[in-house]
Automatic annotation (TrEMBL):
<dbReference type="GO" id="GO:0004601">
    <property type="term" value="F:peroxidase activity"/>
</dbReference>
<keyword id="KW-0575">Peroxidase</keyword>
<keyword id="KW-0560">Oxidoreductase</keyword>
<dbReference type="InterPro" id="IPR006314">
    <property type="entry name" value="Dyp_peroxidase"/>
</dbReference>
<protein>
    <submittedName>
        <fullName>Peroxidase</fullName>
    </submittedName>
</protein>
<keyword id="KW-0408">Iron</keyword>
<keyword id="KW-0479">Metal-binding</keyword>
<dbReference type="InterPro" id="IPR011008">
    <property type="entry name" value="Dimeric_a/b-barrel"/>
</dbReference>
Length: 470
């Protein structure tokens, strides 16, 4: 295995910063190129490398394609980025691919449909530390004429839960190169190239990466491209960062569950069917009738042998759509299904935002809580080396595809766009039962997209090149 160059990798690629619970995501646009370059130059030494585990604060920086063009990178460099990144998330074709239509269309977003150049992700050990850090950053941005478009607050909720009241972020890919020894079961881990450019991916190929002609790197800041000695590797130790702000309509979610259930316990059971796990995290495939606290962290399970028909965990549930594991109806064997599912994994690094509707995040308490009118949701962040194969494939083929797994009119019940008045209907949720399945119709949208963008998340040497390539 290739050794990861942690000192050149931004730390978010290997850390979640659970010890830094306070955070804010700052979205910027530059006004003058030279001043923007100066802002980035002064920030670059503060960027947290993967070789460090910070105790107080962490900084990370990423750029949109428009932002790189604003910095006047040469055309040969800009052209080397992938099409999805160059077009951007709000582009018309991408809207179709991602299901961002109707009330989720970019014209309704709060951000991502304007001129956005870069994002700064700031983490702190507490709110005081975060506010001190943000004050210093704003002093710098004021001095360099940078326009702060949005400051998105975020944080961690009690018990690793999300706002609907379910345990989240249990199934995380493990990067092989971070393990001390080669794993006995390599199917449970992933080569670094799936998430970090400059390393081999699951195809045993170098992950796609933007490049620079050697004459455009006169100060020799960038490494040579491993597969082409005539190019420098701008992407080495970097990634693409996908960011989507998803508002969660918590009262709507639980009102639907109550309206379609006989009592609160049945409402929690229906919601768990949609998610694929009980609120405590225990998976329905291992405990279909009631939660098992001893399995709240369980992630070692599949569907091919134990639940192919979805009688325990419905095929259309959220966790089966976003990670089908070892069962896809399009594949002929468990092994083929595992290999197909593995090629579409993402490294999630998002966090919730907004206050919980009920502090305990207990579904029964949430159901009893009145709508407080406050916005809450998830800042979905994932890191990938192939936007189309990883993020867009899952969003298009699994999350929003109405015939996923042999279904008819179902999208992801939790995060899917539930069309009700268009050419196709995706507002049903089907629960396989013997002899006849049960269908819950007229699902409203339980989430709304409030903003989003694709970013290039460079390695630290690449950051230095971006501010000093002339």
């Amino acid at each position: 295995m290739n050794k990861l160059e942690k000192e050149d990798i931004q730390g978010l690629l290997i850390r979640g910063y659970g010890n830094l619970p306070s955070a804010k995501y700052l979205l910027y646009t530059g006004t003058q190129r030279e001043q923007t370059l100066e802002f980035i130059r002064q920030l670059t030494p503060k960027i947290t490398p993967a070789s460090e585990k910070p105790a107080n604060e962490a900084f990370h920086l990423a750029f949109t394609y428009e932002g790189l063009a604003f910095l006047e990178l040469p055309a040969a460099v800009l052209d080397s980025f992938c099409r999805e990144f160059k077009e951007g998330m709000a582009e018309l074709h991408r809207q179709f691919v991602l299901g961002d239509t109707g009330e989720n269309a970019p014209q309704h977003w709060d951000w991502g449909n304007e001129s956005l150049h870069f994002i700064l992700l700031v983490y702190g050990k507490d709110e005081n530390q975060l506010n001190e850090t943000l004050a210093d950053i704003r002093q710098l941005s004021d001095a360099t004429g940078i326009t702060e478009l949005h400051a998105l607050p975020t944080g961690l909720l009690q018990g690793q839960k999300e706002h609907f009241g379910f345990r989240d972020d249990i199934s995380r890919p493990i990067i092989r190169e971070l393990l001390p020894d080669l794993p006995q079961e390599p199917d449970t881990t992933f080569p670094a190239g799936e998430f970090i450019m400059g390393y081999d991916n699951l195809y045993n190929e170098l992950a796609p990466s933007p490049t620079v002609p050697p004459q455009m790197d006169p100060k020799n800041k960038l490494p040579e491209h491993r597969d082409n000695n005539n190019l420098k590797d701008l992407g080495k130790n970097g990634s693409y960062l996908v960011f989507r702000q998803m508002k969660q309509n918590v009262p709507t979610f639980w009102e639907y569950m109550k309206a379609n259930s006989s009592d609160p316990s049945a409402a929690i059971g229906l919601a768990s069917k949609m998610v694929g796990r009980w609120p405590d995290g225990s998976p329905l495939t291992l405990c279909p009738f009631q939660p098992d606290p001893s399995l709240s962290d369980a992630n070692d399970f599949g569907y091919w042998e134990d639940d192919k028909a979805g009688l325990k965990c419905p095929i259309g549930s959220h966790i089966r759509r976003t990670n089908p594991r070892d069962h896809l109806v399009t594949e002929k064997s468990r092994k083929d299904s595992q290999e197909m599912a593995a090629k579409h994994r993402m490294l999630r690094k998002g966090r919730p935002y907004g206050p919980p509707l009920s502090p305990e995040l207990d579904p029964e308490m949430i159901m009893q809580s009145p709508d407080d009118g406050q916005e809450r949701g998830l800042h979905f962040i994932c890191l990938v080396t192939d936007i189309r194969r990883q993020f867009e494939f899952v969003q298009n083929n699994w999350v929003n595809f109405h015939k996923f797994g042999g279904l008819e009119n179902d999208a992801d019940p939790v995060i899917g766009n539930h069309y009700q008045n268009e050419r196709r209907k995706t507002d049903s949720f089907s629960i396989p039962e013997y002899p006849v399945r049960k269908v819950h119709p007229n699902l409203p949208n339980f989430t709304h997209i409030k903003g989003g963008a694709y970013f290039f998340f460079p390695g630290i040497r690449a950051l230095q090149y971006l501010t000093d390539y002339e």
